[in-house]
Each structure stands twice: as structure tokens, then as C-alpha cells.
Amino acid sequence: MAHPLNTPLGRFGIVTSEDGPDGCVASIPAGAMVNPLTGTLTIAPLAMLVDHVGGLVNHRRRGPGEWTVSSELSFEVRPDAVDVIAEDPGEPVTAMSKPFAAKSDVGLGLCELSHRGITLATATVRSFFISAPEHIGEFPDGPTGPLPPGSLADRMAVRVAESGGSAKALQQLPDPVLNNSLGIVHGGVSAMALELVASAAVNAGRDDRPLRTASLRVNFIRQFFSTREGGPESRYVGTALRVGRRSGIGEATAIGPDGKVAIVARLTAYA
């Protein structure tokens, strides 16, 4: 199932081929995607795919009158994943998810990502089961089709922002297409941006032998809104906690227009 281009999933070319409480399968075009902060190839789109397929299998297990909100996303990825994808950039990355353990107040989806049959990553998404909101936004009808043109930054509606010291930052510009049905920035979009700023931070000043993302853990704390017209900006800020010759640890936060941290992430990377 191709998703309408005026939805977050359609914007990034996600196609869902299986969708149910026992398992979900979806794919995303991830080749030739570039980090706007470094100009290098990135595996950030994998975070969007994980958020979708892992959250979807949790969502399909909800009971009557229930809804789901993601609380945590994580993945472990082979450090050469970007090279594997680059060997055939036109081939999408595929993810399969399945539920783990009995349903309770929290659901856990397990995921495996692959490219041309080569395993790239394992991942998990945790979701809370909550009472269904009274008002859930409906996406307008729109066309489906191939991945829309433009860079990854264009599709994410982010731009490089000023930051202090060695920190790296992206501003989240308003774009209603990137909002989920609750009217906040889609969690997969935020997870991608947090990977971009954290990986840029650990690679600051590193011109040779880049550190490649090996793991990412994202915790969703509160609702994250994009920059509001005429108001304070929303941004993602990445900082390096430790950088060595062959490894690095970065931290990233999503800060809303109210100045509060809405999402946090920890990234590890290896040469």
C-alpha cells in the first residue's frame, strides 16, 4: 500500500505491504540520502521506517476505545549499513515487525531491517495504550506516487540552525504534512533529525575516517510541535559526550517552541 504524498509516510516514500496485529512489513527508499549538517550519506531514514513498522504492529493490537503513543524507539545497526545501501541505492530498505510478549498497558514491537536480503539492523518500538482521543485528525485525500523530489532536509522541513560551541542544530520548520493524526511532528521525523544532529556532533572536525552510527535510542517525553508562525523556533540540538579515535557517544534533544525538551536521544558511533 502506497501512502498519500500529503501524509508523513507518503512524504518519505514508505510502502506498507503487510499490516496486522501479528506482523507488519514496510519499506522506505534510503539510498543517496545526505545529512544536511555534514554533506555525507546517512542512515537516518531507517529511524522513520522503524517508527512506522514497530509502532504499527503495536497499534494493531489496541482494543476498543484505545489508541497508541510511542514512548521509546531504539535500533542497533551495522556500521557499514550506509555502504550496503549505497551498493544499490535504488533498492528500498525493508522492515518486518512482530509483537513481543502479551499485551499490557505497554506494547513492544520487534523489528528487523534488511536491504537486498542483507540484515542491516534490529530495532524495537514501545507504545503506551491510552484512551482514544476525542479528536483524531483525518489526512485529506491526495495522490500516491513515487518519492517526491528534493533533499532529505527538504522532505523533513529542517534547516541548519546556529548553535553554540561544537553543538550541531537543525530547526524544525512548520509543515502540516509532517504532523501525525494528533497534530504534532511525526515521531519518525523527529527520530531522523535527532540521528542527524547527534551523528554530526560526534563527527565535528573529523575529516577522515568518519564515525558511523551503530545504535540510537530515542525517548519521547512530551508532544513536540514545529516552529509556530512568528513564534520561538523548535529545534534539534546534538552534542558530543565523548569522542575517541575509533568511537563516539552523542546526545540529542528536541526542544519545542516553549523551550522545553520534548524528546531525547543517545547515539553511539564507530569508525
From TrEMBL:
Superkingdom, taxonomy of origin: Bacteria
UniProt cross-references to InterPro entries, sorted A to Z: HotDog_dom_sf (IPR029069), Thioestr_dom (IPR006683)
Domain Thioesterase: 183-224
Listed name of the protein: Phenylacetic acid degradation protein
SUPFAM superfamilies with a match to the protein in the record: Thioesterase/thiol ester dehydrase-isomerase
